[in-house]
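Supplementary Text 2. Reproducibility record for the structural model of the 82-residue chain.

All settings were left at their defaults, and a single model was retained for analysis rather than an ensemble. We include the record here because the model underlies the residue-level annotations in Supplementary Table 4.
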Amino acid sequence: MNTITKLRDELDEILWRQTLTGLPGSKRLGLYVLRSGFAVGRDIAEGQLTQRTMSLVYTTLLSLVPPLAISFSVLMGSGAHN
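Retained model, structure tokens:
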């Protein structure tokens, strides 16, 4: 194992070993920010960021279809198209 992989594994262990429930507010926020930055950096380095982005867009578009269908059916039933 090379040193970069060891460093990443050690940082991963430090960030994810602690629970957030017992920490004071400022430390909890700091650890949350570090975890988020580490996760984004890891996804960028591994090339998964675009895959996650595409899945989010796909899920968002699919979740918009049922409310649109219901609103169109309610509008058509109430005679709004006339």
